[in-house]
Amino acid sequence: MKIHSWLPAVFTAAILCFCLTACGSTQPDITQSGTTAETTTDTAARSTENTETSADTEAPETSSVSETESETAPAKESYNDLGVETLAEGIYSLDFRWDYKLDEYLSANVKTTEELDRWFMENLTDGLSTEGSEYNIACSSFAVTDTDGEHLFCRNYDLRHTDDMFIRTAPENGYASIGIVDLAHLNIGQECEAAIDSAEAQSLLLAAPYCICDGINEKGLGVSLLQLDTEHFVTDTEKPDLLVYTALRAMLDKCADTDEAVEFLSAYDIYSPAWWSYHIFITDKSGRAVTVEWLEDGQTVVEDNAVTNFVLYEAPPTRDPDGRYFKLRKALDPEEGISGKEEAMALLETVSQKPGTNWSAVYDLDDFKVEACFALDYENKYEFDGNSGQADH
Q: Is the peptide bond before 355 cis (omega within 30 degrees of 0)?
């Protein structure tokens, strides 16, 4: 990787949705990897072909083993009773104890939503389709070390109100993790075809681990996916293929810190499910945070304390189309400091979108827990413990 200075900013497109992430207080540093690139449009013809297992290049092997004791999952005939807990109307939790076949998925070279839906149907959801929905993911988030030395990773999920679910996984060959799922991506809940208590939902939920929008693992790694309104570029290499939003699941299972997560992403050609691109925010309990983007020159890595839905690599830090980038940077100034989870949640409320914030989440990277408020209701907080898989309200 090479270190690059800021490129001239050319940002005239209207913001489709709002995404921001913040951490630290230093000015951005930029790292770039990759050379040859092609647009998602150029590869559309290839994206509908049947996928095959990558033969020439494989992702680096990891020795990740969960430090959280893994429970034995029920037999397949009990899939109709997954153990979903109802916390409130449209808010659920699930301690997921089934094999979601991550290693098989990573070898399948899935790069479109249609291919992902087909893989789900053939391997997880008993033949039921998730409809291959495109992921519209916006956010406003930050990561910070508070005045007591606690490492917090926080995120607003800003778009539309849907049914949502806390989920915990503890795979035998990976790290335990927790995250939040927008159930609309599985065609479950309000304005979707499957009710949460239906037999169809019980099958569709077997793919839920792949549909997290943000999360952390037991090692203190945090990740979130943020939408951009710029064209997505795919590096044309012999690396295996991976859809960008399923990369979050893989990183949480296999990576212990920010460096490992960036290295993991570098081992794949990353595809977007649509013409637009995404960037991924990655942080860990050391306090380091980066944003990974995919541009014409390949994969880039930007270290900064804030990111909105404009491309950080192409824009100087003085550019802020919606004003929230500097709100977060000012609030995260080390001279000011964040006193704890309550103040972190208040900052999320300050930059929330009305009426479009679906949830606000404050993850504790040290204690492996999350507190969340849903549908702009900041009077009611829900807690989910990654050590036990139990939720509290």
A: yes
Measured in whole angstroms, the distance separating CA 280 from the mean position of its chain's CA atoms is: 7
- The phi and psi torsions of 14 (rounded to 5 degrees) equal -70, 145
In a domain, 57, yes or no: no
Per-residue pLDDT tens for 230-246?
777 777 788 999 999 89
For residue range 152-190, what is the model confidence (pLDDT) as tens digits? 999 999 877 899 999 999 999 999 999 999 999 999 998
Confirm whether 3 is domain-assigned: no
Q: Kindly state whether residue 271 falls inside one of the protein's structural domains.
A: yes
Please, are residues 281 and 141 in contact by the beta-carbon 8 Å criterion? yes
Q: How confident is the model at residue 317 (pLDDT cuts 50, 70, 90)?
A: low
Helix (H, G, I), strand (E, B) or coil at 304: coil
Contacts of 278 (CB under 8 A, 6+ apart): 135, 137, 225, 226, 227, 228, 232, 244, 245, 272
Q: Which amino acid is at 372?
A: A
Cα separation, 291 vs 193, whole angstroms: 35
One-letter amino acid at 221 equals L
Comparing CA positions, the residue from 348, 216, 362 lying closest to residue 282 is 216
For residue 136, give the nearest of 194, 77, 185, 92 by alpha carbon.
Answer: 185
Tokens representing 61 are 């092997």
Is 12 domain-assigned?
no
- Torsion of Cα atoms, 59 then 60 then 61 then 64, to 10°: -100
**Alpha carbon distances (Å) from 388 to 85, 93, 97, 221, 383:** 14, 12, 12, 18, 12
Give counts: helices (H), strands (E), the chain: 8, 22
Q: What is the DSSP letter of 188?
A: B
Domain containing residue 373: 21-50+79-392
Q: Name residues whose C-beta falls within 8 Å of residue 370's C-beta, 6 or more positions apart in sequence.
A: 166, 178, 180, 216, 361, 362, 363, 364, 383, 384, 386
Q: How many domains does the chain have?
A: 1
Domain with residue 41: its CATH number is 3.60.60.10
- Going by the DSSP 8-state scheme, the letter that residue 108 receives in this structure is S
Helical residues (DSSP H) of 173-239, grouped into ranges: 199-204
